[in-house]
Design brief:
Blueprint lengths: L13 H8 L3 E8 L8 E10 L13 E7 L4 H7 L1 H12 L10 E6 L5 E6 L5 E2 L8 H17 L21 H15 L5 H12 L1 H8 L5 E3 L8 E4 L10 E4 L6 E3 L2 H11 L2 H21 L7 H24 L5 H23 L7
Helix pairs in contact: 4-8, 4-9, 5-6, 5-10, 6-10, 6-11, 7-10, 8-10, 10-11
Length: 360
């Protein structure tokens, strides 16, 4: 691992980027990315000009790249949860073998002190999802098909192959401290939830470590862990040989091993309004199971899926409750957490009335 890395966008130089791309860069321009760029890292677009005879741009010499570095606001918890290491190692070890489309990674480096830098493909020409705006049915179907490809590829893969992947997004060994944070945050947000959901989540806070252990019990796979609209791009470009809506997933700091339905519940509950989700829930989940089966995964039954889906909603609420209880760095962050908690509350109430917390 390198001894030193750039720690701020200003420390990233043309020479440093050129050494990673393998082509001398004569000029570098920086453009901060602040709109829905995430709270757990600092991102910047680097506009690049190459020295002759490397002036022509091709995939190995892009006109721009995205650089991602640690975020000062959340660095302590990021290091505790190993978010930086997870993302670097995902791009190094898993992304090249994963059928789900991810940004091309030009460099992924981390130092002993957890300084890290990612140089990634600039996807700014594509359409980024918007969690507050919400999701169409076509987008939801595309998102579930894409994540099913990820899950099928790593279904029941041996954990010793990638020991840095924790069981669940927080890691079972950290269940106690995270449960305490969830309990404190729940006191601040409880009154935002409908009565039925309040009762479910009161019990969920108490049972949090057991629920984590349940979704960490096989069959497990590699999960994105923070799979929502703000962390995906949609490629609408026409392709006459395979017309479809392609999903590109980024922000892999929460990558983990868990039951795949965690990603499914997280995406659907956070990104679909309740009317659409209630009407299409069964169809969307059946489509996810079909997508797994088409890739050779069998035995992921609908009854077990309902229970896994329901408890995943509680675990997702922990993430958003803890985030909502902290000071928001921006209005966009406040709106994202507000929409997320509202949708989670509605979906927890809906599946509770359906008896999904008791399904197995």
């Amino acid at each position: 691992m390198p001894d030193t890395l750039p720690t701020t966008p200003e420390e990233i130089t043309a020479g440093w980027v050129g050494s990673r791309l393998g082509a001398p860069v004569s000029h570098l321009g920086r453009e901060p990315i602040t709109d829905r760029s995430g709270l757990n890292g600092e991102t910047v677009r680097l506009h690049l000009t190459y020295e002759a005879p490397h002036t022509a741009v091709h995939p190995a010499r892009p006109a721009s790249v995205i650089a991602k570095l640690p975020g000062a606001r959340s660095r302590g918890v990021a290091e505790y949860q190993r978010w930086y290491e997870r993302e670097v190692r995902f791009y190094r070890e898993l992304a090249p073998h994963t059928p789900m489309r991810t940004p091309r990674c030009f460099s992924a480096e981390i130092a002993a002190n957890d300084d890290y830098v990612l140089l990634l493909e600039d996807l700014g020409a594509l359409r980024q999802g918007d969690q507050v705006r919400g999701c169409s049915l076509a987008e939801a179907r595309a998102a579930l098909d894409a994540v099913a490809a990820l899950h099928a590829r790593w279904w029941e893969s041996e954990p010793q192959a990638h020991p840095w992947l924790p069981s669940t997004t927080v890691g079972l060994e950290r269940a106690g401290p995270v449960q305490s944070a969830f309990a404190r945050a729940w006191e601040h947000v409880r009154d935002r939830f409908p009565a039925v959901a309040q009762g479910v989540l009161d019990r969920g806070v108490e049972a949090y470590p057991d629920l984590l252990a349940e979704v960490a019990t096989g069959p497990v796979t590699v999960c994105h862990g923070d799979y929502r609209l703000d962390n995906v791009f949609f490629d609408d470009s026409p392709d006459l040989t395979a017309p479809h809506l392609e999903v590109v997933a980024f922000d892999w700091q929460f990558a983990c091993r868990a039951r795949g339905v965690y990603d499914v519940a997280y995406f659907l509950a956070l990104d679909l309004e309740q009317g659409l989700l209630a009407a299409q829930r069964e169809s969307l989940l059946a489509g996810y199971l079909d997508a797994l089966a088409s890739r050779g995964v069998t035995g992921a039954g609908a009854a077990a899926l309902r229970r896994d889906y329901a408890i995943s909603l509680i675990l997702a609420t922990a993430v958003f409750a803890i985030g909502a209880a902290e000071p928001h760095p921006s209005e966009a962050s406040r709106l994202t957490h507000e929409a997320g908690l509202r949708r989670l509350g509605a979906e927890i109430e809906a599946v509770s009335r359906l008896g999904w917390f008791e399904s197995r």
